[in-house]
Amino acid sequence: LPSLIVDAQVTDATEGDNDQLPEIQERLAERGMQPGEQLVDQSYMSGPNLARSAGQGIDLVGRPEQDHGAPEGYRQADFQIDEEKREAVCPAGHKSVVWSEKPIDDGGRCKIQIRFARKACQECDAFGVCTKSAQGRSLALNPYRDLLEPCRARAKTEEFKQEFKLRSQIEGSLSELVRGYGARYA
């Protein structure tokens, strides 16, 4: 089938792509073209965009950013996090000493800050790799982790890779407009 562009909007170069998604979805809905599934690039795959899209019945499909805050073996995914007990255990077996929650909205979503004891971190064999902070290791749990983690797992599947090949058609159409017709100039 042909690739069709069904929405275009001129924005300032200083505006981020991910901020545009709610407006794109709103314009599509106004024209009766709201998708059940929307393939997007990585910048759109934020927690708030996933929540907003799901609330409108749209399955946002893309690769969310991975947990890259530390070296392999000491990333957030390598920690045992028990939200019910409000504690975390690091890869070396040390338990967290601080668990604080900060609500970000009225829907019950909270940003969780976890901290490990300064002394335990400084005396740990992994000090300097896991953390270099004299205060000890800390973790900040994304308030949208319940939406992001399934998307990260999905993006690793062969089924996703096949489905996401359609995204290249979108990039090809945009490339043609930019290179062939000067679409970046307004």
Walk me through the topology.
Blueprint: H1 21-30, E1 37-39, H2 47-55, E2 59-61, E3 80-82, E4 87-89, E5 96-103, E6 110-116, H3 118-123, E7 138-141, H4 145-154, H5 158-164, H6 167-181
Parallel strand pairs: 1-2
Antiparallel strand pairs: 3-4, 5-6, 6-7
Short synopsis of the structure:
By secondary structure, this protein is of the alpha+beta class.
Give a written overview of the molecule.
The structure is a single chain. It is elongated and about 60 Å long. The chain is of the alpha+beta class. It has a three-stranded antiparallel beta sheet with strand order 5-6-7. The chain has a two-stranded parallel ribbon with strand order 1-2. A two-stranded antiparallel ribbon has the order 3-4. The chain starts with 20 loop residues before the first helix and ends in a 5-residue tail after the last helix. 31% of the residues lie in helices and 17% in strands. The model has no long low-confidence stretch (mean pLDDT 90).
